[in-house]
Automatic annotation (TrEMBL):
Species name: Phreatobacter cathodiphilus
Domain of life of the native organism: Bacteria
The protein's name in its UniProt record: ABC transporter substrate-binding protein
Cellular component terms (Gene Ontology): periplasmic space
Pfam families, sorted: SBP_bac_8
UniProt-listed InterPro entries: Bact_solute-bd_prot1 (IPR050490), SBP (IPR006059), TAT_signal (IPR006311)
């Protein structure tokens, strides 16, 4: 029988490379015998997940699912939806008491209905003890009322994606590390006819990432630690003014962009700089099109610039998985969540994602994906640099509602597109927040 300790993880790439095919199945069967989490007899799970952006990640995930079924006898039916459709479907399931047993969602979705989520403190404690503890962001997203209601499986790190040659042609050897220098770079890129572009449509991943960075990097926030609304502040005004200057350098049409538009614009050569996960690079590098591979060779990634706050101020897209209390198979839900985060599964899955997904268990800092390609290195830090949704306030149903309603995204979109002046944009956001934080 396999000894399941952190020693297995230290083997890193060896474990990732060996446990394929029958090897993975044999390990999974041994795991099922040793694991404290046992599926109910005859259990079948329905899992709803977000739709993949990196094909190899999806393929590796399906291998994990197949191994779990072979080892435990519990079939797992996986369905996927776009980022924007996961939260509405999860809310319907919670309200009706019927639907998927497991939901692999985004940001703070389980905090919209924490009482409907299966408690998984035992799973979180098991994994944390075995794999070097959770990063603080995991506890922020995973816990409600002192207990774990979800297991934050991964974070999709989103950082600056740029064309090296075009940034150099604009007079910069690297991406400036401060917001002032970053604005100058974007102005220079526009002047060269190679503009940047960031989504200000209701893009769940990229739109939220851009808008929250704008707000938080200037020291502004929706609420304070006591949930007092603080959006009407000098810091928010400064963020809006900066955003408008930046917006004026963008390619037209970004107010209507969703989470795939900036990928397409970058790979078509329409823009030279955006913010995204590593999926643009991964797609270009794996393409059969020589022009796409040329783009990959000319790409690199950089951290979000630091604003007046003087430290990293980013929101990264967390992917928490949670079981529903209405499920007939709560033990199977727990077993599956524990299974996919074991090193023998999680290491090769991280590698297959090629940096698109980042861990929240400290031991996975050692995964080879972070050193095999220097262009992936910044993504390793995303879970450690991210503020949680709802910052500076706690993650709860109110914070989850605010991000689900795109209040921060709309704040900047209303001003940048000319729909509202600075004061008008703040009044709209403040009015929306008052309906939530009451």
């Amino acid at each position: 029988m396999t000894a399941f300790t952190r020693r297995t993880l230290v083997k890193g790439a060896a474990a990732a490379g060996v446990l394929t095919g029958s090897g993975l199945t044999d390990w999974a069967r041994a795991w099922a015998q040793a694991s404290p989490f046992k599926p109910e007899a005859g259990a079948t799970l329905n899992l709803l997940r977000w739709r993949r952006f990196v094909e190899a990640e999806d393929a590796q995930f399906n291998k994990m699912v197949a191994a779990f079924t072979q080892a435990t006898g519990c079939k797992v039916n996986v369905s996927s939806e776009s980022f924007d459709d996961v939260q509405p479907k999860a809310s319907v399931a919670a309200n009706t008491g019927t639907g998927p047993d497991l939901i692999w969602s985004l940001y703070s979705v389980p905090h919209l209905f924490p009482q409907k989520c299966l408690e998984v403190t035992d799973v979180a404690d098991y994994l944390g003890k075995k794999y070097g503890g959770w990063v603080p962001l995991a506890e922020a997203y995973g816990k409600s009322g002192g207990k774990w209601i979800s297991i934050p499986v991964a974070v999709n790190g989103g950082y600056i994606n740029y064309r090296i040659s075009q940034v150099k042609a604009a007079g910069f050897n690297e991406i400036p590390q401060d917001t002032k220098g970053f604005l100058e770079l974007c102005k220079a890129l526009k002047a060269k006819g190679t503009p940047s572009g960031f989504p200000l449509g209701r893009a769940t991943g990229d739109g939220n990432a851009f808008a929250h960075w704008l707000l938080w990097s200037h020291g502004a926030a929706q609420v304070d630690e006591n949930e007092k609304i603080t959006i009407n502040s000098p810091e928010t005004r400064a963020a809006l003014r900066y955003a408008k200057e930046l917006w004026d350098t963008f390619i037209p049409g970004t107010a209507a962009w969703n989470d795939s538009n900036n990928n397409r614009a970058f790979l078509s050569g329409e823009i030279s700089l955006t913010a995204n996960g590593i999926s643009i690079y991964a797609a270009a590098k794996a393409s059969q099109d020589a022009k796409q591979r040329e783009i990959a060779a000319d790409m690199d990634h950089a951290f979000w610039p630091i604003g007046p706050i003087g430290k990293p101020a980013e929101i990264q897209l967390a992917f928490p998985m949670f079981g529903m209390t209405y499920s007939r198979y709560p033990n199977a839900c727990k077993a599956f969540m524990a299974f996919i985060l074991e090193a023998e599964n999680f290491n090769p899955w991280l590698e297959a994602a090629q940096g698109y997904l980042t861990h929240l268990l400290n031991a996975y800092d050692n995964n080879p994906v972070w050193t095999a390609d220097p262009k992936a290195k910044v993504f390793r830090e995303s879970a450690k640099r991210s503020f949680p949704a709802g910052y500076k306030g706690p993650i709860n149903e109110k914070a989850a509602t605010a991000i689900a309603d795109f209040i921060v995204v709309d704040l900047f979109a209303n001003h940048c597109t000319g729909k509202e002046d600075v004061e008008g944009a703040i009044r709209v956001a403040e009015r929306q927040l008052r309906r939530i934080y009451r």
